[in-house]
Write a structure and sequence with these properties.
This protein is of the alpha/beta class and 474 residues long.
Length: 474
């Protein structure tokens, strides 16, 4: 049992003023594994004050100073890989392959930002004027539960890289993961006030961050609905916002695809992280000419995917994060049937042989049309919709007919052809034939998938403002 009763302000673990307690559960067993004491608006204001006090010194740090901080953060994370892995497994239930990636990626985020800072042009020339890229001030960061370590690291890395200070409101139901990561980050010995973390509820801590006049920018990762609330609140004090939001990613299987390679990629593009991913390829677009063949392969391969204990290295789909999310997925599966889609595999309830835990049967719907709610709304679980198309033009039209535009996937035996299709897709990232994650490529979306970009130089641009100094010419 782990009881989290501290928040992190001004370089110290302190007892929050807030007294509300939230229970924490293992989603694979439904057992209570801890509690977290939540901060309130007063705690949030204290954190903002600490960040504001630390900002002048932080804003004047050199490239070398920031790079050294980032490398210390990376090393501190690598020193506790096993502890971080255990926390993520117990509290979130992610399969081992995803947990392993998440922990290693958390450390590498700081290294990539260090490289970015080294090469970034903070001082520039425009005509006869000197231009300097300056940090905005105190950053607020609000992060979700589906990749807790990575999102916290990304927000912090952008703060350090830009010369800003930050107050983070992580997902409160991820408090054990946050605590272990915070202990790592504390060991990196950042200047007091540069990093502040307040566990708390969105309508309390999040609301204070988005309305407080001393916060200059808000970086939010989460649902589009929540982002609209944040953006409305932020406009009152003209805060800059970076919003990384939902998705309904298309996976286009072109008619020349090698199914031995394409089918596993298509399935894991949708089912990775148990489907709890904004980048999931949840709409699988297949050519009508190969419909029956592809549906048969999708069904047979999906039914081979192991669901169960996240500690088992052979498991590909773990539990959902909590009962509320489990119930949400059940309702969408029922909705799909009501809309006239055909359950190709899966369906409602837990998988056979599993009686406890928030496990879902990996579900694929066939006979889906792009106007169905299951094809248009972000479900955030292991539920995929298969839509047929006649030719490449129609596939692209269907793929782009969405309120979202975060990440898309193209599968083809011909890379040149795949690239031509990718060039016509409205998405922040397009993955060709299962290409691996690139930690330097910008991340963010079009339309209701967000505003702005994160990662690398594109991410730094969002948290810096140019100041031009003009002098008389002789």
């Amino acid at each position: 049992m782990r009881n989290i009763d501290k928040i992190y302000i001004n370089g110290q673990f302190v007892t929050p003023e807030g007294t509300d307690i939230l229970k924490l559960f293992n989603p694979a067993t439904e057992e209570k594994i801890g509690t977290v004491r939540l901060g309130n608006a007063g705690d949030t204001r204290a954190a903002i004050t600490a960040a504001k006090r630390a900002f002048p010194a932080m804003s004047r740090t050199s490239k070398a100073d920031r790079i050294a901080m980032l490398h210390r953060l990376s090393a501190a994370v690598r020193n506790r890989t096993d502890d971080l892995t255990a926390a993520m497994t117990d509290e979130y239930g992610a399969p081992a392959y995803f947990t392993g990636f998440s922990v290693q990626n958390t450390a590498s985020i700081f290294d990539v930002m260090a490289e970015t800072v080294e090469n970034y042009a903070f001082d520039r020339q425009a005509g006869s004027s000197a231009v300097k890229m300056l940090p905005l001030g105190v950053m607020a960061a609000i992060t979700p539960w589906n990749s807790n370590f990575g999102f916290i690291a990304t927000k912090l890395a952008h703060a350090i890289g830009s010369g800003s200070t930050v107050v983070i409101k992580p997902a409160e139901q991820s408090a054990i993961q946050t605590q272990i990561l915070l202990e790592c980050l504390h060991a990196a010995d950042l200047p007091a006030g540069v990093l502040n973390v307040v566990n708390g509820l969105g309508p309390v801590v999040g609301a204070e961050l988005t309305t407080h006049p001393d916060v200059a920018s808000v970086s939010f990762t989460g649902s589009t609905a929540a982002a609209k609330i944040i953006q409305r609140a932020a406009i009152e004090t003209m805060k800059r916002v970076v919003l990384e939001l939902g998705g309904k990613g298309p996976t286009i299987v072109l008619d020349d695809a090698d199914l031995d390679r394409a089918i596993p990629v298509a399935l894991m593009s949708g089912f990775a992280n148990s489907g709890q991913a904004c980048v999931a390829g949840t709409r699988i677009l297949i050519p009508l000419s190969r419909r029956d063949e592809i549906l048969a392969r999708l069904k047979s391969e999906a039914e081979k995917l192991k669901v169960g204990n996240p500690g088992d290295p052979d498991v590909r789909i773990g539990p959902l994060v909590n009962e509320r999310q489990w119930q949400r997925i059940q309702s969408y599966i029922e909705l799909g049937k009501q809309e006239g889609a055909t359950v190709l595999t899966g369906g409602e309830g837990r998988p056979d042989g599993i009686s406890r835990g928030w496990f879902v049967r990996p579900t694929i719907f066939a006979d889906v049309t792009n106007d169905m709610r299951i094809a248009r709304e972000e479900i955030f679980g292991p539920v995929l919709s298969v839509i047929t198309y006649r030719d490449d033009d129609e596939a692209i039209e269907i793929a782009n007919d969405s309120d979202y535009g975060l990440q898309a996937y193209v599968l083809s035996a011909d890379t040149t052809r795949a690239l031509a299709v990718a060039d016509r897709l409205i998405a922040g990232r397009v993955i060709i034939n299962g290409a691996p994650h690139d930690p330097h490529a910008p991340f963010g979306g079009f339309k209701q998938s967000g505003i702005g970009r994160e990662i690398g130089a594109y991410g730094l641009d969002e948290f810096l403002e140019p100041r031009a100094i003009l002098v008389p010419t002789l």
